[in-house]
Amino acid sequence: MPTTQSSEITAASRLENVRYAIRDLACVADEVAMQGHKILPLNIGDPNVFDFVTPAHLIEAVYKAMKDGKNGYAPSSGIKEALDAIRGEAGRKGITNIRDIFVTLGVSESVDICLTALLNPGEDILTPCPDYPLYSAVLAKLDIGLNTYYLNEEDGWQPDLGDIRRKITPRTRGIVLINPNNPTGSVCSRKMLEEIAELARRHNLVIFADEIYDKLILDDDQHISLAAVAPDVPVVTFGGLSKNYLAPGWRVGWGVVSGDNAAVKPYVEGINKLLRARLCANHPEQYAIKPALEGPQDHLIEVRKKLRSRRDLTVKACNSMPRVSCVSPRGAFYAYPRLDIPEGDDVFVKELLLQKHVLVVHGSGFGQKPGTKHFRIVFLPDEKTLSSAYAAIGEFMRERYR
Ligand SMILES: Cc1ncc(COP(=O)(O)O)c(C=O)c1O
Questions:
Q1: Which of 226, 234, 331, 382 could form a disulfide with 259 if both were Cys (CB 3.0 to 4.6 A apart)?
Q2: How many domains does the structure of the chain reveal?
């Protein structure tokens, strides 16, 4: 008789550091929904769940590609017309010294490939705190310890340059800059970009410029690409269709490597080795890249208009609640209000969900300065939903914390 294996199959211990608070809360939400309550979802950054739709000309381009038989594997770096369009867009953003361009399964896969191609055991990269959890998840997978730098709430959530300087060690290989930022909605000034580039230059760091929200600037500022202010510095600029072009389910993103050619050459070879090993990104969806970047941009006017009014509503509501204060976001669709409460923000978020059926994400899921507490709001829902949610949060604050 063959013996049956009785011991459980344990997951790798390095996964203990993988956290994805945004989706982890879903289990509690399911429970609340099963009790028949309608949840007000201010937690997931998917525009298509709300009143934002993928531009029709992009859907047509993908449909046509499928009908035209573009259903086999694509080249590992991406199809030529998409690469040309991304190059053109990078040029319009002032990025020169382009050394490589590749299309991936969302920015998520670009990040995975680019960090994997760079880091040896014992090395690290600087990631922002609070951060978008993708970076720490990939680093956990690689068994690379976290080295985080603070974003400074008192300075509109700009990177804390002093902290970055203090955290750079001989083992530090790169720095991640998310601009516009998730979860804070901050946008970096040219001066800040230049200062970060100077640190990278001095310490031989690769900059990972995550600019996936670059067309979602809510005020009159102009988005400046980090690579554009530092053509000599090795920079990988990330962009994609998920946010600006309202198509997150297509899983289309890209990376643009710029900088001194001799410096980045071996790294680009490493990236391409990994790109080939995973065959290719989604093929027909890549046909939406050229019409997205070169075609009509009308949807963006409407998107920014909606986001601006929802942002204003959010900031006003938060700043009028007891024990809540909120720096006004200037880009993307996130706000990161501060809480002055005697218990953890994870408890706050869970109780808010159980008692008022409003779903937000706790600051401790993104990281924050010790002693501070926050929660992240996604202000994609319409004004009516947001107003109901903020009325409920205000009531909760008054009832629970007086
Ligand atoms: C800062 C940031 N980078 C990357 C991603 C992932 O993007 P993609 O859908 O292209 O994988 C997100 C998604 O929310 C994000 O907020």
A1: 234
A2: 2
